[in-house]
Amino acid sequence: MIVVAGEALIDLVPRAAGPLADLRPALGGGPYNTAVALGRLGSPTAFCSRVSFDAFGEALLDGLRAAAVDVSSVQRGSEPTTLAVASIGLDGSAVYSFHVEGTADRLFTAPARLPDTVRAVSFGTCSLVLEPGASAYEELLRSAAAQGVFTALDPNIRAVLIPDADAYRARFRSWLPSVSLLKLSEEDAKWLGGTPREWLAAGPSAVVVTRGGDGLTVFTHDGAEHSVPGEEVDVVDTIGAGDTVNAALLHGLSARDALSPAALADLGPDGWTELLRLAARAAAITCSRAGAEPPYAAELGDL
User: Where are the alpha helices (DSSP H) in the chain?
Assistant: First the structure.
């Protein structure tokens, strides 16, 4: 079982250009998209979050169930669902503003212990910023690492939600000793400061940096770098692309029985190239359709 911990929210996506375009509600949130993508790829997956009892919350749970994601660990609350209003650029990239005050996912509380069947836990995005939930997710990250569980982190920076950038950067660095796999975009890396080699020295066994259409690169403890190009695709939008990369990496590592630091070290150039190609193909499919619609396993072909 792979557990994905973090927020589930509603993306309000414009149907056309212009500031007053009609908005279409879509299921979203970085961790939510990652869980759905993992489920669609066929990995046994559970979602760990707090979801509203409102209509949006029910729709979010229905989306997880449709992807065969276990929702038995999801906490519920009467508070409203978080809303993210997207603005889509000419290149398909998305910029967000958020409505987060008093929403359900901010009141998440960490479980006492993860089940012994959990092989990996994935964290990221708004859930690690918005208190008091952020401290609870941080507690879960540290306790999972202490249990010897493989941990993945995608900070997926939303700068508009971070009031003190330097404090967040320091907090990010404090997480690294508890992280097995760090994945982040070039933009996130620039905002956070530091380098993949510096982050590796702090704890992670591997760091994957995404470069949009230019592909992905992994940096490993042995000093190696392995890169693959992006797959050409007609981009509709990039919503959920990074989350799909997270899922594809975890799915591929699970399939290779490589959810441990030692196994990551043994992947080698061929193993990493196959894994990164899988992630690139999955992300390209997500970018080819509107909203966060990650692929099913059958759409990925032989990889």
Answer: 30-41, 55-66, 133-146, 165-175, 186-192, 196-202, 241-255, 261-265, 268-287
**Pick from 164, 274, 185, 200: nearest CA to 238:** 185
Residue 93's pLDDT band, with cuts at 50, 70 and 90, is: low
| CA end-to-end distance (rounded Å), the chain | 21
d(CA 106, CA 101): 8
Residue % of the chain over a pLDDT of 90: 72
CA distances from 215 to 95, 122, 153, 241, 302 (A): 21, 22, 19, 12, 19
Q: What is the pLDDT of residues 1-34, one digit of tens each?
A: 999 999 999 988 877 766 677 888 989 999 999 9
Question: For residue 255, what is the DSSP state?
Answer: H
Tokens of 59: 């729709």
DSSP annotation string for 56-90: HHHHHHHHHHHTT-B-TT-EEESSPPPEEEEEE-T
Give the number of other CB atoms < 10 A from CB of residue 60. 28
Say if residue 160 is exposed, middle or buried (CB neighbours under 10 Å; 0-12, 13-18, 19+).
exposed
CA dist 60 and 73 (Å) reads 14
Q: Give the closest residue to 285 by CA, choosing from 227, 230, 209.
A: 230
In the chain, % helix, strand, coil (3-state, to 5) comes to: 40, 20, 35
Phi, psi of 269 (to 5 degrees): -60, -45
Task: Determine how β-strand 206-210 pairs with β-strand 216-220.
Answer: antiparallel
Return d(Cα 269, Cα 246) in angstroms, integer: 19
Q: Report the distance separating Cα 181 and Cα 8, nearest Å.
A: 22
Burial class (CB in 10 A: 0-12, 13-18, 19+), 191: middle
Query: How far apart, in whole angstroms, are the C-alpha atoms of residue 239 and residue 257?
Result: 29
